[in-house]
Amino acid sequence: MNNLPPIDDMRLFCAVVRNMSFIATATELGASPAYVSKRIALLEDVLKVRLLHRTTRRVSLTQDGETVHRWAQRILEDVEQMVESVTTSKTTPRGSLRIITGSGFGRKKLAPALSELAILYPLLRIELELLSRPVDMIAEGFDLDIRVGGDSAPNLIVKRIAENSRVLCAAPSYLERRGMPAEVIDLARHDCIVIRERDQSFGVWRLQGPKGVETVRVSGPLSCSNGEIVHQWAVDGHGIILRSTWDIAGDLREGRLVRVLPEFFQEANISAVYPLRLTESAKVRVCIEFLQQWLREKGSISI
C-alpha cells in the first residue's frame, strides 16, 4: 500500500478526461504535452492498468479508466470537503460546484441566477447540466439538484427554496373550439398536451382540489419531453397543459393562456437536493441561500 497514486496525478487524469486531449490539458495547465503524457503513464504504472486509449488527435477512456475516473472524482471531492471543513473556505466558497436541473427552469431561472453567483464568488467553478432524465446524484457526482416538485431518495437532504405549483391552462382559441371543462374527469375527453418529466407519471395528472386529490388519465395528439415546446403548443391552441406558475405567469397576464379549473392545482415546490456528505459545505450553503433570495427578489417566485 506504499505505492499509492499521487493526488496531483489523479487531478491531472481527471483534467485529461474532461478535455479528452493531452494537448488541451497541457495548454490549460501551462505544461508540455510530454509532461502530461509522462504523468499519466506513471499513474498507469502505479495502478497496473491502462487508463486511456491514445490516438493522434484525442484520447478516450478504457473500461478500467472509467472505474478509476469515478473513484478519482470522488476522492478529489472528498479532499476538497476536508480542506473546506478546516480552513477559511467555511465562509468563502470555492472549488467545483456541479448542479443539475430541468431544461426550462434551468434556462429561464437558474442560469441567470448562477451568472450573478459566479460574479460574487469567483473562486467557484460552477458546472450546470440541464437534464430531463432521472439522476443518481451520488453515482454521477452532482453536488446540487434544483428540482421542481418530486420526491427524493432517503440518503439525500431536501431543502425548499421557493413555493410553486402547477396549474391547468389553455389558449382562448382552444377553449372556444372545445369548451371549458367543468370538472377534473372532463379532462379525459379533452386534448391534453402531456410532458414526460422526472417527477411525473406520464399521462396521469394528480390534482389537489376542494375535495382533496383527484386523479385523471389524459391524452392528446401531441406530447413531448420538453416543457418549453409543450408550453408553446398550448399557446398555439393545441390543448390543455399542466405547467408551473413560474413558467406561464406572463402568458396568463397577457391573455395568451387562460386558467382551466382554477380551483385545482398540483404542488411543485422548488427544492435544493444534496448528499448528506455536503451538509457542512460552504459552496452548497451559499448557493442555496443565494438562490432563495434571488428567486424571491428577481425570479418572480415566492419563498
Q: Sheet with the most strands?
A: 5 strands, mixed
- What's the assembly state of these chains? single chain
- Determine and state the CATH class of the largest domain: Alpha Beta
Q: Supply the CATH architecture of the largest domain.
A: 3-Layer(aba) Sandwich
Bin the strand percentage: 15-25%
Order of helices and strands: HHHEEHEHEHEEEHEEEEHEHEEEH
Give the distance, in angstroms, between the N- and C-terminal Cα atoms.
52 Å
CATH topology description of the largest domain: D-Maltodextrin-Binding Protein, domain 2
| Mean of residue pLDDT values | 87
Quick one: how many beta strands? 15
Helicity, as a percent range:
40-55%
Report the total helices: 10
Low-confidence stretches are: none
Number of domains: 3
Structural class: alpha+beta
GO molecular function, one term: sequence-specific DNA binding
Family: Belongs to the LysR transcriptional regulatory family.
Pfam family, one: HTH_1
Organism: Oryzomonas japonica
Output the keywords.
303 residues, alpha+beta, Arc Repressor Mutant, subunit A, D-Maltodextrin-Binding Protein, domain 2, four-stranded antiparallel sheet, 15 strands, LysR_subst-bd
What does this structure look like?
This protein is α+β, with helices and mostly antiparallel strands and 303 residues long. The chain folds into three domains: 7-78, Arc Repressor Mutant, subunit A, CATH 1.10.10.10; 87-162 and 269-297, 3-Layer(aba) Sandwich (D-Maltodextrin-Binding Protein, domain 2); 165-267, D-Maltodextrin-Binding Protein, domain 2, CATH 3.40.190. 41% of the residues lie in helices and 22% in strands. It contains ten helices and 15 strands. Strands 4-3-5-15-6 form a five-stranded mixed β-sheet, covered by helices on one side. Helix 1 crosses helix 4 (63-86). The chain starts with 6 loop residues before the first helix and ends in a 6-residue tail after the last helix. It holds the Pfam family HTH_1. Keywords: DNA-binding, Transcription, Transcription regulation.
